[in-house]
C-alpha cells in the first residue's frame, strides 16, 4: 500500500519544477494524469545535456515516471469540457504556467474550485502571482543569480557561477510537494480544499535560511575569499583542496587533527577563530600546501583516522558506483517499453509501512488518452472524432 493510492493528480505543469513535484506524488502512489499539449510538453523537445533517448529524452524520462499522459488542446471547448470532468473527480491540480496562461486556458483556481471546492490547487510561478516581476519568465539560472546564491560560492574576483544542478527548480518542486501534502492533510481533517502557491524566488531564498540570516540578523555581508566555496560565514578551511591526483573536501576547522593527518606542525594549536576568520586566506594556503603532497586515498585515510570531517570529491561515475548508494538503493531501475533498461534517481524518503513505488516509466505523448477518456465515459466514436479534429493526441497503435 502506498500512501496516495486512490488519489488523482492532474499535472498540467511543464519543464522541471512542476513535473518533479507531480512525480513525487506519483511515487507515493497517486494516479498522476499528465495533461499536455497535443504535440507534447515542452520538456519532451528540450533535453538537459542533449540527452536523447529513443522516443523520450532523458530529461523528460527522469521527471515524469508514474504518470499517464493525456494529450489535449485546452484551448478548444471540447478539450476544456474534458478537463472540467476530470477536475470534478480529482484531488490535486498542479500548474506552473507563465502568469495569465491559467486564466486564458480556463484552469485558474476560481474556475476549478467552482467545479470542485475540495480541490487542492498547486500554482507554481517564478516570482509570485502578483507583484512587479509577475511577467518575467521563471528560470533556474536567473533565480540562482538573483537570489544571492551565486555570490556565496567561487573566488573573490571571479565571475559568479551557477551550481551544476537545477537547484531552484528542485527546491521549488519540493516546496510544491510539501504544500500539496499539507493541504491534503488539512482537507482530510476539514474537508476543505484550497489554493497552494509556491514561487521560485521564495523557494531559493528560504533555502538559504542560515546564510541569509547571517546578513539579516548578524549584519555580516557576503564576502568572497581567495578560496572557492569559502563563504564568509564558515570558518576556514571549509572547502575543497587539490591532492596529488585529485581533490578532497574538508569541512571543519580541527587544526590539531589536520596538523597530525597532514604532517603539518604549523597547523597545530591554531585558534579556530583567528585562523578560521581573521587569517582565513593564509589558513587556506597552509592547508592547500599540505594536502597537495598526498594522494587522494592516502590523505582521506589519514584525515579519517584523525576524525577530521573530510571526504572525496566525486564524479557522477564515482557516485553511481559508491557502495553506500548501492546499499541505500538510491537509484531505481526498470524496463521501459521504448527506452529499454532505465536507471534514474528514485524517491528519497523511506516509509516503514508504506514504501514508495515505481510502477511505470514516463509515458509517450497521449499514450493514455484513450484509457482516460474511456474512464470518463467518452465513446470510441467520439474519441476518434476528437482525434480527427486535433483536440486530443493519442499514441499511434
Ligand atoms: C517556464 C516558463 C518561462 C515557460 O513559459 P512559456 O514558454 O510561455 O510557457 P507556458 O507554459 O507558460 O505557456 C506556453 C503556451 O502554451 C499554451 N498551452 C500550454 N498547455 C496547453 C494545452 N494543453 N493546450 C493548449 N495550449 C496549451 C499556453 O496557453 C501558452 O500559450 P498562450 O496562452 O498563447 O500564451 C513559464 O511557464 C514560467 O515562468 N513558469 C513558472 C515558473 C516555473 O515553474 N518555471 C519552470 C522552470 S523549469 C526550467 O526549465 C528551468 O528553470 O530551466
Per DSSP, the total helix count is 17
The mean pLDDT is: 94
Helix content: 25-40%
SSE arrangement, N to C = EHEHEHEHHEHHEHHEEHHHHEHHEEHHE
- Sheet with the most strands, sense and barrel status: 7 strands, mixed
Oligomer: single chain
Q: How large, in whole angstroms, is the Cα Rg?
A: 25 Å
Count of discrete structural domains: 2
User: What are the distinct ligands in this entry?
Assistant: oxalyl-coenzyme A
Structural class: alpha/beta
Tell me the CATH superfamily of the largest domain: Crotonobetainyl-coa:carnitine coa-transferase, domain 1
CATH topology of the largest domain: Rossmann fold
Overall CATH architecture of the largest domain? 3-Layer(aba) Sandwich
Low-confidence stretches: none
CATH class of the largest domain: Alpha Beta
Spatial order of strands in the largest sheet:
6-5-4-1-2-3-12
In whole angstroms, how far apart are the ends?
Answer: 32 Å
Q: SSE layout and pairings?
A:
Blueprint: E1 8-11, H1 17-27, E2 31-36, H2 58-63, E3 67-72, H3 77-88, E4 92-95, H4 101-104, H5 109-115, E5 120-125, H6 140-146, H7 167-190, E6 194-199, H8 200-207, H9 209-216, E7 239-242, E8 247-250, H10 255-261, H11 272-278, H12 280-291, H13 296-305, E9 310-312, H14 316-321, H15 323-328, E10 331-336, E11 340-345, H16 369-375, H17 380-388, E12 392-393
Parallel strand pairs: 1-2, 1-4, 2-3, 4-5, 5-6
Antiparallel strand pairs: 3-12, 7-8, 8-9, 10-11
Helix pairs in contact: 1-7, 7-8, 11-12
Amino acid at each position: 500500500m502506498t500512501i496516495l493510492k486512490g488519489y488523482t493528480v492532474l499535472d498540467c505543469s511543464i519543464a522541471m519544477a512542476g513535473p518533479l513535484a507531480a512525480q513525487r506524488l506519483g511515487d507515493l502512489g497517486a494516479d498522476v494524469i499528465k495533461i499536455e499539449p497535443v504535440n507534447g510538453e515542452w520538456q519532451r523537445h528540450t533535453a538537459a545535456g542533449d540527452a536523447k533517448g529513443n522516443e523520450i529524452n532523458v530529461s523528460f524520462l527522469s521527471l515524469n515516471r508514474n504518470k499517464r499522459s493525456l494529450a489535449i488542446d485546452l484551448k478548444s471547448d471540447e478539450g476544456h469540457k474534458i478537463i472540467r470532468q476530470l477536475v470534478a473527480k480529482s484531488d490535486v491540480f498542479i500548474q506552473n504556467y507563465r502568469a495569465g496562461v491559467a486564466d486564458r486556458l480556463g484552469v485558474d483556481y476560481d474556475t476549478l474550485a467552482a467545479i470542485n471546492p475540495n480541490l487542492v490547487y498547486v500554482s507554481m510561478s517564478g516570482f509570485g502571482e502578483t507583484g512587479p516581476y509577475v511577467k518575467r519568465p521563471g528560470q533556474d539560472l536567473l533565480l540562482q543569480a538573483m537570489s544571492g546564491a551565486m555570490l556565496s560560492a567561487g573566488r573573490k574576483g571571479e565571475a559568479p557561477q551557477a551550481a551544476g544542478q537545477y537547484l531552484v527548480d528542485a527546491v521549488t518542486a519540493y516546496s510544491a510537494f510539501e504544500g500539496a501534502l499539507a493541504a491534503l492533510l488539512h482537507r482530510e481533517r476539514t474537508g476543505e480544499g484550497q489554493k497552494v502557491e509556491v514561487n521560485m524566488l521564495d523557494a531559493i531564498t528560504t533555502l538559504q535560511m542560515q546564510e541569509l540570516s547571517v546578513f539579516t540578523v548578524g549584519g555580516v555581508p557576503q564576502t568572497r575569499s581567495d578560496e572557492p566555496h569559502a563563504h564568509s560565514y564558515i570558518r576556514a578551511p571549509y572547502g575543497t583542496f587539490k591532492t596529488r591526483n585529485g581533490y578532497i573536501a574538508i569541512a571543519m576547522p580541527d587544526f590539531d587533527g589536520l596538523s597530525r593527518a597532514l604532517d603539518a606542525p604549523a597547523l597545530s594549536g591554531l585558534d579556530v577563530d583567528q585562523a578560521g576568520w581573521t587569517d582565513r586566506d593564509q589558513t587556506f594556503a597552509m592547508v592547500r600546501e599540505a594536502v597537495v603532497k598526498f594522494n587522494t586515498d592516502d590523505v582521506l585515510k589519514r584525515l579519517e583516522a584523525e576524525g577530521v570531517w573530510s571526504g572525496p570529491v566525486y564524479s557522477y561515475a564515482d557516485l553511481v558506483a559508491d557502495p553506500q548508494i548501492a546499499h541505500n538503493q538510491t537509484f531505481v531501475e526498470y524496463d521501459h517499453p521504448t527506452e529499454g533498461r532505465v536507471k534514474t534517481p528514485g524517491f528519497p524518503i523511506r516509509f516503514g509501512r508504506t514504501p514508495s513505488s515505481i510502477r511505470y516509466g514516463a509515458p509517450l505523448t497521449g499514450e493514455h488518452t484513450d484509457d482516460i477518456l474511456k474512464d470518463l465515459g467518452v465513446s470510441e466514436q467520439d474519441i476518434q472524432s476528437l482525434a480527427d479534429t486535433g483536440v486530443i493526441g493519442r499514441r499511434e497503435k
